[in-house]
Write a structure and sequence with these properties.
54% of the residues lie in helices and 17% in strands. It is an alpha+beta fold. A hairpin with a 3-residue loop joins strand 2 and strand 3 (45-50). The longest helix has 18 residues, at 120-137. It is globular, with a radius of gyration of 16 Å. The N and C termini lie close together (7 Å). This is SatD family protein. It comes from Wenyingzhuangia gilva.
């Protein structure tokens, strides 16, 4: 059982590709090869194969990375299932996980993040949660997204350590994480990990 993330950059032509492409590649490289294999194709689209438990966390990490750049966003569909054929390239691999990811992505209308699996009750619950979460995430300001990104990368770090790393005041970090809905998003991630752990 694997997760496939299918995503693309919204308004990618509004910003120089050199800016967002570097951010995207750095984020994907930092996930680590032991956790994920990925490919960027058609200029502004991404596919990632990853362990199911890490998929939503990586999606939020990608969101916080891209939202640091003004005027662009990222749409993400996650599919969880089997991979029946895995080639050297992610984009030529196949299986239910890819089909589900494509369906989740194609189903995005006003929302920017969705999950599809073979477990309909789970899908219904998690997608309601994600619809609410993206009401906040879609409106992260660049400085806010930077703080969320740093905290997601360093979950054990205290706010004072995040503040020092970013050369900001601790009060700014605390305010930004609160306004970004960081605790609520963490609750959503924990719920997802627990349920996926039970299902997979």
């Amino acid at each position: 059982m694997k997760a496939v993330i299918t995503a693309d950059i919204v308004n990618s032509r509004e910003v120089s590709p050199e800016i967002w492409l570097k951010t995207l590649k750095t984020t994907l490289q930092n996930i680590g090869e032991e956790y994920a294999v990925w490919e960027i194709f058609r200029g502004d689209s991404i596919q990632v194969i990853i362990q199911p438990k890490k998929a939503l966390e990586v999606a939020v990490l990608l969101k916080s990375a891209i939202k640091q750049i003004p005027n662009i966003d990222i749409r993400i569909g996650i599919g969880i299932g089997e991979i029946t054929y895995q080639s050297e390239k992610v984009t030529t691999s196949n299986g239910p996980a890819f089909v589900y990811a494509g369906e989740a992505f194609d189903g995005l209308k006003k929302n920017t993040l969705a999950i599809k699996t073979r477990w309909q009750e789970f899908d219904k619950t998690i997608n309601i949660m994600l619809n609410l979460a993206t009401l906040t995430m879609d409106y992260w300001k660049p400085a806010m997204a930077e703080i969320v990104y740093k905290q997601l990368e360093n979950p054990e770090s205290k706010q004072i350590e995040i503040a020092q790393a970013l050369n900001k005041k601790q009060s700014n970090v605390s305010y930004s994480l609160k306004k970004a809905g960081y605790e609520e998003i963490q609750d959503c991630l924990q719920f997802y990990k627990q349920k996926i752990g039970e299902l997979c």
